[in-house]
Fold:
Amino acid sequence: MDNIIFKRRSIRRFESRPVEADKIERILKAGMQAPSAHNLQPWEFLVLTEQEKRDAVSKMSPWSGMVANAPVTIIVVGHQQNEDMKKYLPQDLGACTENILLQIAYEGLGGCWMGFYPDKDRVNSVREYFNMPEDRIPFSVIALGYSPDENRFIDRSDMSRVHYNRW
Structure:
């Protein structure tokens, strides 16, 4: 299977070498290509390359320890000007995050998505540490970098979960 969807997997170990700026830019642009309700594109991104900042985020969740060792971390941040569309924010930001993960794999890198939203403690810890406005919602944290782990295909399909025309 040569499709990038089948190569993407969660990577939690990273080499210390930096990620090239052009790759980071393509990864962010891929996130911005995600579909969103009424095409409102309710996302912003906080890119962390400084060790001190990554160390802080690595302690904000029981599952974010790998952030300290990833050369780059992207925090997908949501905002919604239109109150009627706020209910679609999780879908919009989820699609954005998945696009980022697919581009990470396409670039030959490894990445791992950590959900911070809707956990209020995690959301507030990121918001406070980075002095974000109250209307910004830290949704996901994505650690990324070069990985010593081989990106091999793992077949997770289970066709018994597929139903046609009736349950």
